[in-house]
Amino acid sequence: MKKRTFANSALVLSALFFPWYITLIFACVLAFLFPFYVEAVVLGSLFDALYSPGSHNGFYAGAIVTIVSSIIPFVISRTPWHSR
Amino acid sequence: MTYLRPSNRIDPSKKRARRLVIVLVLFAIVTSFVFPSAIGRTLYIVFSPVWKVEIGTASWFLSKAKLVQSKADLIAENELMKKDFALYQVTSLELSQVQEENLVLKEMLGRPKKGSSILAAVLRRPPLSPYDTLIIDVGADSGIRVGDTVVGQDSLTLGTIREVFPSSALVELLSYPDRETEVLVGTKNVPAKSVGLGGGNFKMELPVEVAVAVGDSVRMPGINSTIMGLVGDIKIDKSGSVASILLKAPYNINDLSLIEVVSSSDEKKNVR
Q1: CB atoms inside a 10 Å sphere around CB B31
Q2: Interface pTM (ipTM) of the complex?
Q3: Chain B CA closest to residue A22
């Protein structure tokens, strides 16, 4: 749990000080390392709360972070070389 | 050989931690839906000072880094800048004369320039922000209001203020995806509607008969008209009747560091 808390703190700092795509890659890595990584949803909400204007008519950072960080680890875990 | 069967029981501390994570996530989601502005407001109050310190520290390090540049490089750069300066000085004089003349004429005709402007530092910009938005270091305390116009260097219109916090504000750039803006294109000031594509790019559609060329300026309508973009590319559709025009901002949104907020009107506006 300590590792997870440390990783989450690093993820929040990444969202505040690094480009969004680096944070997204980082979230994907964490989703692969930790099971049931629902914190990615909070990261998406954080992006929206910080950077998106009130009306959404562009893409949704929250949705993208959640989808990418949950799909990629799922796909990787189903690859033959991973299950071997 | 006999092996011990692995236990199916989950460690109670892990179970508690997992439950805590789920509760926190649900809390974040519910709060963001029920009180969307509360989270943003709190985050801005907490992180604005951190960002201000970061910007200050970064600029200090950059200024110190320049001191260790080689002398030869500095001399070469200095020579180049002197040449550029001489060239721009003449152009600047001509431009300021024309601007002054323009202001005098507007005043004579009863249309003086209204509204005050405030200089602001950009705390966050793309690619830190996944949207075409900026976070600036002035807010309601400095008289910033929702709807104020944001202009960059050389009076380029960048966007408008969308959210105001006590000491910071959120700027939505004109190139924000799907944002529609009424503009005037080319030398004949053809009215059109530009649609934001993100990343400082826009598009618009016009009949092919309208004379628009690559490099033409795109201006905001109004008596104090300012440039918002340049025509970058023109593509004609298969029917040959509609021209898809791609516009680009004459600035790099990733390089914006200082901007100006111009109060658009004195009417009271909502402050989040």
Answers
A1: 15
A2: 0.72
A3: B128
